[in-house]
Design goal:
8 helices; single chain; 220 residues; 7 strands; alpha/beta; seven-stranded mixed beta sheet
């Protein structure tokens, strides 16, 4: 469930900590727009300009044959691109509307479930089996998760040895796109929380994209 301006991630992960916005507030913000408008925004040329998916895919490297879960897949902005690059993708989301959007687009394009599977998630778990995937990517979604160290410990358990998590989100500063400043989370906080979740090596790429950082967290 991508937020109104988040453009990829998932509105709907709730928070229980006082310094973070609530699940209800996140959804209220996202749902200022109807679903069709949200979907159009997430797939817009304007998004392409700042999201720069080709740069992101180049940064991710050769994904052919890798199993990748896209958490907060939304309209499948990255899910389809990863599948086209040869990955076996699980497009995961808590919102049935986005899951149905991806299903219809996938079927219309003739992409098989073996290349692009769907997974409806609860709010508190990625629903990954131990060592199920090589990579996990979550874009413009991080600030929606409840109890992030606990959630991403589950993500870590779902990664194969040598696997990695990629968090792409907005700098905690005023940007032309993205959620309100108070909803944004700094890269430094992401790093601290992923280390608390148990990731062995966490690094930040902050110069690739104009308004977003990429945090890579590796299992070893």
């Amino acid at each position: 469930m991508e937020k109104q301006e988040d453009s990829h991630g998932h509105g709907g992960q709730q928070h229980k900590h006082g310094h973070q916005h609530s699940h209800g507030e996140a959804n209220a913000y996202m749902n200022q727009s109807d679903f069709e408008e949200l979907a159009q925004r997430f797939e817009s040329a304007e998004r392409d300009e700042y999201q720069q998916p080709d740069k992101v895919l180049a940064y991710l490297g050769d994904v052919a044959g890798l199993s990748i879960m896209d958490i907060g897949a939304g309209t499948g902005y990255f899910s389809f691109r990863l599948a086209n690059a040869g990955a076996k993708v699980i497009a995961a989301d808590v919102d049935d509307r986005f899951q149905e959007y991806i299903r219809q687009k996938r079927d219309s394009l003739g992409i098989g479930e073996d290349r692009l599977a769907l997974r409806k998630l609860p709010y508190d778990s990625p629903e990954l089996s131990p060592g199920e995937v090589d990579r996990v990517i979550t874009v413009n979604t991080y600030h929606h998760f409840e109890d992030r160290p606990a959630y991403f410990a589950k993500v870590l358990a779902g990664l194969k040895p040598g696997g990695a998590l990629y968090v792409i989100d907005f700098f905690k500063e005023e940007t032309p796109v993205g959620p309100p400043l108070e909803m944004k989370i700094s890269a430094e906080k992401v790093v601290a929380e992923l280390k608390a979740a148990g990731f062995a090596k966490v690094e930040v790429e902050s110069s690739l994209l104009p308004y977003q950082y990429i945090v890579k967290a590796a299992t070893e």
